Amino acid sequence: AKLCMMMALANWLALYRDRTTSFWWGFVMPGLIFGIPLALILFEKDMGTSVALALAAFCVMFVAGTRKIYLGGAFALAGTALYVLVQSNANRLERFLAWKDLDAHRLGAGLQQYRASIALSRGGLDGVGLGNSAEKHGTLPFAPNTFIFATRAAEFRFLGPCLCTTVD
Length: 168
Prior knowledge:
By secondary structure, the chain is mostly helical. Helix content is about 65%, strand content about 0%. It contains eight helices and no strands. The radius of gyration is 19 Å and the shape is globular.
């Protein structure tokens, strides 16, 4: 769905590239193309994916030539909605506060992010080699799927996650 959303948005903006500055063809219709699936993802309680997709869609629309005043207003509205959503859910608020200060929350809500930062720092310039990341052997929760970027970066330097996309 994520890939299809971005392809549909890019296709729409390419088809109507001469009208991307208009409110209807350059902002409302593309907003509906990614807004409806984005709302469904958000209602499934996946705020992280929703925010990432919304930012990607804003970038595509910006590059395509959608007027900045439309995007700015939508960005302000989305930021306000994000603030309300984080404040209204204790788990989201705790995770956000943990993200802001990982050292203070390294054993609680920020455990995964803290361990991922350690994995990234241990990779160094050369990496530790395939299968040699200590964090993926129990200290980094969800290392094979959710935090695969951190383990691949530790094993193959920072370039590793871009080149190696297989899961252990």
